[in-house]
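Late entry, evening session. Most of the bench is empty. Finally got around to the prediction I had been postponing all week. Sequence below, unchanged from the version circulated by S.P.
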Amino acid sequence: MKKLCLVFILLISIQSIRAQVFSGTQEIERATKEGVYTTVSIEDKYIKQSWQNELAKYGSVEVGRNNVFRITGARISSISPDPVMVVSKITAERGRSKIFLSIGFGDEVYVNGSHPKYLAAEKILNDFVEVLKRHEEVRIEEKNVEDIKTRQLKSVTTSDKLTRAIENNKKEKDRLLLKIEENRVELERLQMEVEQNKKDQLLMNEGLINQQKKVEEAKLKLKKP
């Protein structure tokens, strides 16, 4: 129940994602780039591939170290009819993921807050966040399915253990009942042997008395002349 509540809260938080896009700078491979950026409360490991796929719409993406993406000669019709240079980087900051996008024209002219194409660049990030939101919803639902499968497997395993325990208990019960029956038979046998032993002792006592009488009679005969 707690996990379902957590999933519900996560889904609600995802639904409330709205990209706030800002203008700023980012150091990328020892160079300071101007551009636009947004942050989302999703781990960067769940963003990288989706962002690479999104950038691939504009050209061949070169993936560098530290989550850096480059497109040389990117074709972004909403920005420019001519090829542009795209450099992007994903970083983790204060529990959130920052997606930075730099679009350059040449002569170190970049799309920033004062550039006429700022809204177009902002839309690229906003649209991606919407895509990211849907992917995150799918991921969470898939994780929920896996969690249910894990609990189900654990339940089945527990059921199997309980079934085996019951079977072992029945076997132990049967073994004990058999032992009790064997003990009963053994007790009856011992009791019969005790009774027989008593009878044997009586017979032997009677035999001894009779034999003693015969001895006395024989002695008396010896005394006669």
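Two things to note before I forget:
Helices lie at 2-15, 48-55, 118-223.
The chain has a mean pLDDT of 88.
Will write this up properly tomorrow.
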